[in-house]
Structure formats: C-alpha cells, structure tokens
UniProtKB/TrEMBL annotation:
This is Phosphoribosyl 1,2-cyclic phosphodiesterase. PANTHER family: EXODEOXYRIBONUCLEASE WALJ, METALLO-HYDROLASE YYCJ-RELATED. Residues 13-191 form the Metallo-beta-lactamase domain. Counteracts the endogenous Pycsar antiviral defense system. Phosphodiesterase that enables metal-dependent hydrolysis of host cyclic nucleotide Pycsar defense signals such as cCMP and cUMP. It comes from the Bacteria. Pfam families: Lactamase_B_2. It comes from Paenibacillus peoriae. InterPro entries: Metallo-B-lactamas (IPR001279), RibonucZ/Hydroxyglut_hydro (IPR036866), WalJ/YycJ-like (IPR052533). It catalyses: 3',5'-cyclic CMP + H2O = CMP + H(+); 3',5'-cyclic UMP + H2O = UMP + H(+).
Length: 268
C-alpha cells in the first residue's frame, strides 16, 4: 500500500493532515473543532475510530483547537515534545496519562511499518517541528509555519518523494495589507511564515529529480492566492536555473475549507 495522505485543511483558520499506510493512520495537528475534523475525515471515507494517534507540530490554536476533544472522543495518544506539551497543557484539557506521549525533536518513532522522524523548524512557538514519514523507500515530508528553512531542515526534507511546504504569503500583498505593522514584521521574520518567493527558492535547491509533487500549504487568505503562489514559486525556481516539465514535477493545491484528494506517495 505504501504511504497515502490527505491535507484535510490548511491555513490560518485551521490545519490538519492525515498520513497512513497499510497498518497505521496518523493525524498531524487538530486545528479545527472536533466536529469539523470529523466532517472532513468523513469526506475522505475515514472516521476518528480509524486514527492511531495525533502528532502535534506546535501549540498555536490553528494547530491544536480540536486536539483535546479528538483525543478524548477517540481515546487517542498525542505525540509532542516536552516544551510543546507544556505549552498546550491548559488548552487541551484533561488527557489520560497513557495518551500523553513524548516525541522529542529530532527523534524517530516507528508505528508498525510507518516510521516518523521529527525535525526542528523556526517559528514563534515553544519548540515547533515538522515531520517526515517513511515506508520502505517512500518518503513524505511536511514543513509549514517556518520563518526560514535552515540547513538542518533542508537535510530533513531533502529527497522526499512528496513535500507539503508552506507558501504563506505574497510579500507585497502582506506589506500593503490591513495588518498592523508589528504583525507584518512577525510574519516576515525568521520566526514567522515562509513567503511564496522563499518557498520557490528552497524548492530550487531541493529539486533533485526524486521529488515529484509539492503541496503549497498554509496560504494566507488575506495576503495570497493559490494561482499567485504557484506562479511566484515557479518563477523563483526558474530565476535560480531550476526548470522542470509538468510531467516531472507538479505544484499542488491545498484548501482551508475542504480536503485534498487522497494522494499515494508512490504515484508519479
């Protein structure tokens, strides 16, 4: 079967992704209400009973809003590093001791035949992380909410068959937008969010022939549009000498209000 995934929702209003293989199904973040997550799961012919656990990237509400409710409703273990656990403790409410699991930054954990590797990222949170998933030779990496991509992050997500990467904002739209300057400065900082241009620059370094698809994620509803993001990312790649055919590599959409279709990592 290999790795399959669906991005249930992506953006500042809520984030959740499902990754599964033949014997494990994991939810990455639960940034919407439990009711909404259940609705999105149903759209992809899944139910909460089929989940084996929840991986947390960081404590911001658009990633943990429904975390406690989902864990209690389906008796699910939650995996996060110690600093993130400390940061979310009040927000998630009562969680059974057996379901409080520690997955430290940089650690690897095996869920049956699905291997999960955590890696640190740069964001204004206690200890934010991304995740890479492995099943045999297949690799899926998820990296959003990062102000910049360090060499360690590049190493962690390099050679992924499929990558879910933040492409949060168009810089000029953000600069001209309605946000106060202190929020704009935070988003543009090294602990903020990745712009379209920066996403393209990173992809130009990472694209070695193995990565077949990149899902552009966590787009701002106020300061970005999917078609603009794809156009800017592709332009930034070409400016750096990275040209590709659509048959070799594709930029894919994510949505804030509906899930992406199931995608099998092994498919070309």
């Amino acid at each position: 079967m290999g790795i399959s995934f669906t991005v249930l929702s992506s953006g500042s209003t809520g984030n959740a992704t499902v990754v599964r293989n033949e014997d494990t199904t994991l939810l990455i973040d639960a940034g919407l209400s439990a009711k909404r997550i259940d609705e999105l799961l149903k759209e992809r012919d899944l139910s909460g009973e089929e989940l084996d656990g929840i991986l947390v990237t960081h404590e911001h509400s658009d990633h943990v809003k429904g975390l406690g409710a989902m864990a209690r409703k389906y008796n699910l273990p939650i995996y996060a590093n110690e600093k993130t656990w400390f940061a979310i403790s009040n927000a998630v409410g009562q969680i059974a001791d057996d379901n409080r699991r520690i997955l430290e930054t940089g650690a690897t954990r095996e869920f049956e035949s699905l291997r999960v590797e955590s890696f640190g990222i740069s964001h204004d949170a206690a200890e934010p992380v991304g995740y890479s998933f492995y099943d045999g030779a297949e690799k899926l990496s998820v990296a959003t909410d990062l102000g910049y991509v360090s060499d360690k992050v590049k190493q962690a997500i390099s050679d992924a068959d499929v990558l879910v990467l933040e492409s949060n904002h168009d810089v000029e739209m953000l600069r001209m937008g309605r946000y106060p300057w202190n929020i704009k400065r935070r988003i543009l900082s090294d602990i903020g969010h990745l712009s379209n241009e920066m996403a393209g620059a990173i992809l130009s370094e990472l694209l070695t022939g193995r990565t077949k698809r990149t899902y552009l994620a966590h787009l701002s509803r106020d300061h970005n549009m999917m078609e603009l993001a794809k156009l800017t990312v592709r332009g930034a790649m070409e400016d750096r000498g990275c040209f590709y055919k659509d048959s070799e590599f594709r930029l894919c959409d994510t949505y804030y209000d509906r899930p992406t279709p199931w995608d099998k990592v092994s498919e070309s």
